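Hi,

I'm pasting everything inline rather than attaching a file, because the server keeps stripping attachments. The sequence lines come first, and each chain or strand is labelled.
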Amino acid sequence: MKQYANVLDRPISKGKQEVSLSGFAFLFSELVQYNQTQVDNIAELERRLEDAGYAVGTRILELLCHREKGNRRETRLLGILSFVHSTVWKVLFGKVADSLEKGTEHEDEYMISEKELLVNRFISIPKDMGAFNCGAFVAGIVRGVLDNAGFPAVVSAHFVPVDGQQRPRTTILIKFAEEVLQREARLG
Amino acid sequence: MAAIYSLYIINKSGGLIFYKDYGSAGRMDTNDSLRLASLWHSMHAISQQLSPVSGCSGIELLQADTFDLHCFQSLTGTKFFVVCEPGTHHMEDLLKNIYELYTDYVLKNPFYEMEMPIRCELFDVNLAQAVQKDRVALLGR
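And the predicted assembly:
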């Protein structure tokens, strides 16, 4: 194996494609539990999980731009959305997201939906925590990717009840900043 | 037709953390179920001492004329036991499945406090499915 003088010259390896689901579940459970001890209310907890996800999003964007897209940069809204929906989801969760939709009520809203987020697979939210969703972590990842790609947005995770199904599905709601829409309109 | 009367899960100190009855035959009010749990915990511990053979890990099967009681103890001391009709087969497999569901939907839940009563929606849903599948498989045999 060729030895590199400078560690920065080493090629970025593909890495292990598979990680133990149980290992990840326990680690994520510990992350949530640790943050619970540090906060007083649920909104704070959600914000902390989001911030943790933001850090992941920043790094995954850099890595994937280099590895998957040959250092090309997305400049269009639909481009970056389909990048998140397909590439980022495939790398993080092993499958593309279930659906990508444009919001009907507002121009600046888009939704990525998933029947059940991987991070929520083993988690049952107690009744007294209301609408709290550990998917805030994933919302943070999406916000990290979008923010650093030049598309600032407010991203949140919501449970959406589905008729005929006991478990609600999860929707990641992305609300883009005004400047993004203006730039998009200028580009035509 | 062989069927389960009730399921109990007790923590390592003998406290009842989960109780579910299936049908009126196994039904008990809260106090009785708590009493039974600690009773079984003590009996299980005593049986380990009474055994003439060293290295005994406790009672696995109790057979009476109107019911059978199958017990599974995990390495951490959590006991899963099920009261069922005499002659029911494959209860050990069911108990192992329930243990797996416990490790998945209870232990990986960040909102579950160790040794406390189990209040996890996903555990209840998957447990119901497992018991139902077992019941259907039983009818098929």
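Helices of chain B lie at 30-50, 91-105, 121-140.

If the labels don't parse on your end, tell me and I'll reformat.
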